[in-house]
Every structure is written in structure tokens, then in C-alpha cells.
Amino acid sequence: MTPIRHKISNGAGKIKMKTNNDEFFMREALKEAQAALREDEVPVGCVAVYKNQVIGRGHNRTESLQDPTAHAEIICVTAAANCLSSWRLKDVEIFCTVEPCAMCAGALVLARVKRVIFGGRDEKFGGCGSVFNVVQEKKLNHRMEVTEGVLEKEAIGLLQLFFEKKRKKKTRDKSRRYVL
Ligand SMILES: [Zn+2]
């Protein structure tokens, strides 16, 4: 069943409001972000959905792989393409806990993704409206729908938890140095 979506305009392109179905799949993306948090990675998660089914998942692994391209979305898009045995993901929707960066947004355009749904914005690196809007760039040969703000609080909460932990660890390490 196609969920009902209410169109709202921000002038930048097609932005649609969240639906319950979106929240369901965003919870799956949040599970991936939690997995990243457990692995001491910046907690960002992503799932790919095709015909109402998750066909790919991924979470950030830049630290464990020491690979600057090992973002949740890239891992997820690769898994989805493997699942469909096709690099064209034209009826696939991508759910990310945080706004994809310019690199990932570029990958979504190359994959011809139908829609991207994200939780929190990334004001520093966001490629879906915050810094750039790669996914709706008229000069490119493919554009997609964008839905933002789905379970934003949960997504941002995980990031805050991660950076708080990092800060505490830094302070602890510093004070230890003085003790020694
Ligand atoms: Zn990225």
C-alpha cells in the first residue's frame, strides 16, 4: 500500500512530509546507527527499501576500515545493488539517520534512487539541502524526492551521545596524564 504523503514546499524542490511507514524504516536505519555506536564509530545508519522490504543495510565504518568512503550510505547502496543484481536502484528508497554528505548524495544520484529520507540535517557536510543539494541538482541527469526530519530527535540523540562520550574520554585521558 502506498502511504499517503503530504507535499510541502520549501522552494528548493520536492520535499514531502514524514509518514508512519517512513518511521518504521527509519527505526531500522537507527538500529544500524546503534551498531556503529557500539563499534565506536560516528553513529550513522542507513537502509535501502524496495517494494516495502529492506534490501540493504549499512552503518558508518570509517574508523574500523580506515576508509574515508566507508559511509553508511555507500555500504548500504552497494548491498542493495548486490541484492537486485543491478546498479540501477530506480524504485529504491534510502533511509538515513543523518543527511547524506556530498559524496553519498552523489552515489544516490548515480544509483538513480527514487527517494531519500533522512532524520537530522548535517549543516557541515549535508549534500541534500544543507550545504549542497546534489540530489536535486538540475544540471545532473537524475533527481530524487527528499523527505527530512523523520525521527530526527533519535538520530541526533545518538550523535550527541557519541560526542559526549568522546569529550569525556579526552578529559579523562588529559587528567590521567597529569596524575602520572
Ligand atoms: Zn557520506
Overview of this protein structure:
The structure is a single chain. The protein contains 5 helices and 7 strands, in the order E-E-H-E-E-H-H-E-H-E-E-H. The protein is of the alpha/beta class. The strands form 2 sheets. It has a 5-stranded mixed sheet with strand order 4-3-5-6-7. The chain has a two-stranded antiparallel sheet with strand order 1-2. Strand 5 (93-98), helix 4 (102-110) and strand 6 (115-120) form a beta-alpha-beta unit. Helix 1 packs parallel to helix 5 (152-179). The longest helix has 28 residues, at 152-179. It is globular. The termini are far apart. The structure holds zinc ion. Zinc ion is lined by residues 71, 73, 100-101, 103-104. Zinc ion (ZN) binds at residues 71, 73, 100-101, 103-104.
